[in-house]
Amino acid sequence: MFRESLGNWLYAQRSKSGGWFWALIAFLGLLVLANVFVHPHHPHFGLDAYPGFWAVFGFGGAVIMVAVLKKIVAPLLARPEDCYDRDQ
Amino acid sequence: MTATNSLLAHPAVYFLLASFAVPFIPGRLLKWLLPLPAILAVLSVIGLDHGTSGVLGWVDTELTLFRVDQLSIVFAHVFAIQGVIALIFAMHIKDKGQHMASLAYVGGGFGCLFAGDYLTLFVFWEIMSVASTMLVWLNRSDRSVRAGFRYFMFHTLGGLFMLGGLLLRWADLGTLAFTPVDPSGAMYYDWLIMIGFCVNAAVVPLHAWLPDAYPEATVTGAVFMSAYTTKTAVYVLARAFAGFEILAIAGTVMCVYGVFYATIENNARRILGYHIVSQVGYMVAGIGIGTAMTVNGASAHAYAHILYKGLLFMGAGCLLYSAGTAKLTELGGLVKRLPLVFIFYMVAAVSISGMPFFNGFVSKTMTITGAAEAHRTWLALGMELAAVGTFLSVGLKLPYFAFFSKNDNPARELKPIPMNMYVAMAIGSALCFFTGVYPEFLYKLLPIQEGVSVYSPYIAHVTEAIEHPYVPYTTWHVLQAFMILGFTGLGFWAMRKVVVPHAQRNVDFEWFYILGGKAFLAIFSRPFAWIDTRWSEVYRTVGLRGLVGSADGSARFDRAAIDGVVDGTAKGVFGIGGALAKLQTGRLQTYASAALLAAIGVGVLAFVLVK
Fold this sequence. Notes:
By secondary structure, chain A is mostly helical. Chain A has helices at 2-12, 17-37, 53-77, and one strand at 78-79.
């Protein structure tokens, strides 16, 4: 009962991804705004004294990591999924 | 310190005895008794005093079975708690072999934590190695048998490094004591021991056994293995090798390396395996940097990691148990029918990602801040990058492709998940949250704190760490964590069409191990075999003919020379015999006069010589 209704509710959110996306954007906007006022006590890396450094770091890190690994590295390393499961 | 702990309080005793008792307990009773050794272990660990007991004389040295200090206690605490959770998770299993293997395995882990000398450590280390191999094999598939062999061979190699190191160390120092090593005075045997430890800690490039074998273990076996092997190795590294620069570098490499491979991996349990490499990297780096804050951070992270990683493997194990596969390409839309698995999984996923209010946040940020405060800027930045990648793979990619992407296929048969598995996941989730919002519970257990003597003299900045303890919940730390995670989420959204998993195996360092194995095999099957064949031919032609020839020669020699000599001797003996016979008249007066003559002759000779 509870499990079913929870499952149905979560499953229904798949078709509402637009709303969740804008909620995320609003949340991220608030974080960057807060960063204008809240700074680290001791910036360790130099650039992290500027507001939005960790925002750029998170977004850029994720995008570059996925792009480089999925587009360049993965094709080089790819083998059949069962390559170690059979006799040669 | 006083030794007040009885050997009966040693948690390994409960687990090893339970392992032997399992075959004799009827199945229905066993199910309910199963968590008992772990519950006893929790009670025992809470009551342990600092001190050493269980010291045995052996050959010309001492073995220490039960050394208790704050470093062993923080690990033992979480080993015991995770033991309860994992045994509850395994309650439905009817295969007694699996229970025996997992109990022996956890017992081995406790034995290592409390070992005060290298030989005791080695024995329990190998118990863990054998028992964990069984946890792979007992999955009883062709794949798991192969993966188990590869796993066992590699761990045997690591164990031999350690054995070689400890014997050489014993020969040189005359002691087996398991004590901290001076980073500036490490000898060759210390390095050998460290290599053995690094195999079990899955330090890159010795790590490939982990993502190879863990996905092939049983559903419950992987939950056990994710907690104990690598964290036992973290404990021994912290004990012996705090402050070793090479570990600081290697650990940070592990952090990003594991994350990179997880990004392109398809099998959910292999993704989690690569994230063990990555998370253990934080601990290894913290130990290597070797300040009080980073060593505390490494211990705290091990504690948090055991809880959330066990929970992650339970979640992924539920997918495998229920849907029959852990490959993301074959999953999708499962949130509708497995919503609780999704919720529990997500608690672990945000914990490993270091989201505020969950346990990863209070341990990971401690290690990173410690690294930054020790002015290891690049190391700290590498760890931050790994945090981005962790949330990307474990917090977003895996759950998205398993639970949300694609429509639920109603034709897919889902095996119902037993209640005990849900209970175990609920306990794990509660603890991840509890340590996250109440970090003092964890910080009170850490090895370096006020009133506890520091276990190693090679740890730096102890006074600072005690005077200014780390405070996780500052506005800045919370804001920074949410910014990193939130914008990683935005990055995932931007790349969601690119990050789609593909059904492929990504070759890793096992390729080099296999190459090494093939080279070894080739040396024996080609050049050595060639030499052997040639030698056989040489022997057949030259050797055999030579042998016949020499036999011929020796026969001739025998007849001509030996016989001649022997016959001559015989002739001579015969002649002497005849002469003696002539001399022997049998009359006493003849012998007496001959003896008198001889005596006079000897006397005259003596007189002449002396004069």
